[in-house]
Amino acid sequence: MIEFLLFLWPSVLYIFFRRKSLGVSRARAHVGLRWGSWQAAGLSLVLFPVLLGIGYLGIRLVPTASLTLPGVVLVQGVSGAAILRAVGEEIFFRGFLGGLFLRRWGLWGGNTLQAALFLVPHLVLLSVDVHLWPILPVQFLSGWILGAVRYRSGSIIECSILHAAVNVGIGLLAG
Asked: What is the DSSP string of the chain?
């Protein structure tokens, strides 16, 4: 819950401070807090098995002994914490950072930068065990794909649902 709130604050502050110059509706849109389109929802449905497969492959490339070490947590099934973590990451990385970077540098530059920044907190996995490295390219690629959905839809709603569903799906498959 604390992680979710930390990820939420930059967007809340952005909306608060930009509400007079942009208006609340436009400030919310800048951080992706608006409804997307049916096309983006359809794209998310198509991308779900792709991201699930990539994530599952990443987990399977890690030695089983590494996955049972203290500090390695796999999402096991549906949990409120797993869903909040995914939504929080989407609010911050695709909503706040993605919104800023995509407006400034477009899909390729801005999205690559937000995906690289999304990877940074996941680098902590290497301090637990270097054999967890196969998860890192998966994190980057997933961050990039979710950013592309954000770019296309202008919304983090589809990204949040997709991210949470993939996390839960991988937890169920790997568990």
From this structure: -HHHHHHHHHHHHHHHHHHHHH-HHHHHHHTT-S---HHHHHHHHHHHHHHHHHHHHHHHTS-HHHHTSTT-----SS-HHHHHHHHHHIIIIIIIIHHHHHHHHHHHHHHHHHHHHHHGGGGGHHHH-GGGTTHHHHHHHHHHHHHHHHHHHS-SHHHHHHHHHHHHHHHHHH-
- Model pLDDT for residues 93-142, shown as the tens digit of each residue: 999 999 999 999 999 999 999 999 999 999 998 888 899 899 999 999 99
* CA proximity to 149, closest of 53, 50, 23: 50
pTM: 0.90
